[in-house]
Amino acid sequence: MSDSREEYNRGGMIAFIFSMSFVFLFFIYIVAIHPGVNLDEKIKDPTASLEVVAGPVFDIATVKEPWVKNDDVIVYGKKVFSTNCAMCHGEQGKGDGPAGAALKPPPRNLIEGKWTQGGGAISLFKVVTNGIPGTSMAAFGHFKVADRWALVQFIDSISQNKSKDTPEQVAEFAKTAK
Ligand code: HEC
User: Fold this and answer.
1) Which of 40, 79, 133, 166 is the most buried (most CB within 10 A)?
2) Which ligand 1 atom sits closest to the C-alpha of 105?
3) Is 120 exposed, middle or buried (0-12, 13-18, 19+ CB in 10 A)?
4) If you measure from the C-alpha of residue 100 to the centroid of ligand 1, how many angstroms do you get, rounded to a whole number?
5) Which amino acid residue places its CA nearest to atom 43 of ligand 1?
6) Which residue has its alpha carbon closest to ligand 1 atom 29?
7) Which stretch of 52-56, 86-90, 153-157, 169-173 has the lowest confidence by average pLDDT?
8) How many other CB atoms are found less than 10 A from the CB of residue 111?
9) Ligand 1 shell residues, CB under 6 Å
10) Burial of 169 (C-beta count, 10 Å sphere; 0-12/13-18/19+)
11) 139 close to 130: Cβ distance less than 8 angstroms
12) What does the angle CA 46 – CA 72 – CA 99 come to, to the nearest 5 degrees?
């Protein structure tokens, strides 16, 4: 009888020690190993959190005159460019995108801005809308008008050969531009 109680107690003690060490190891894991939520990491990269904050706030559809110079529109235009044009014109617009390497004529270096179609904001809008026949420069007339103006603003912002169209000329053209 006393033997079996000793058996029982030893079993209980082993179970107790076993579960306590489990709890202890789990505690060590949570404190020392588990990555958890590191608030410092979020603060370290201010642009990443800005992106999260600024991203959904800017809506190109709320810009009434997307042809008027506006830094938000330029940033938005860079995103449109990155998705649709960078494969040929390169991420920085140097004409060195991976899909452009074998093209003849090659994609234009938009920074040098040696334009063949005029190069003012109005002519850039027409190029983006209609493409350049006989070359790989495709027409993007199916893009929203505001998106095309955002592309024009982005290109003008990186070009060394900036648009000489006056704001009045551009506004006049924009009235009818589709
Ligand atoms: C399939 C490759 C390709 C894609 C994609 C492409 N382009 Fe082009 N682009 C070209 C080529 C090639 C030329 C040069 C044609 C020439 O030399 O006449 C060109 C020329 C241009 C020019 C020069 C116009 C001028 O007056 O000289 C502009 C501006 C331009 N592209 C803007 C864009 C924009 C904006 C996009 C995205 C919406 C885009 N391209 C997408 C291949 C491409």
Assistant:
1) 79
2) 17
3) buried
4) 10
5) 137
6) 124
7) 52-56
8) 16
9) 81, 84-85, 87-89, 99-100, 103, 105-108, 110, 115-119, 123-124, 127-128, 132, 135-138, 140, 151, 155
10) middle
11) yes
12) 90
Tokens of 113: 């801005």
Q: In the block, which residue shows the tokens 């588990």? A: 34
For residue 152, give the ligand 1 atom closest to its CA. 35
- Among 104, 108, 116, say which to mutate for ligand 1: greatest number of ligand atoms within 8 Å of CB: 108
> In angstroms, rounded to a whole number, what is the distance separating the alpha carbons of residues 87 and 42?
31
Residue located nearest, by CA, to atom 5 of ligand 1 = 85
Structure tokens belonging to residue 61: 């559809």
91 CA distance to ligand 1 centroid (A)?
13
Q: Are 145 and 177 in contact (CB under 8 A)?
A: yes
pLDDT in tens, 24-75: 888 888 788 777 666 565 555 555 544 555 556 789 999 999 999 999 999 9
Among 103, 77, 97, CA closest to 159: 77
* Alpha-carbon gap, residue 156 to 164, rounded angstroms: 10
Structure tokens at 90: 């390169």
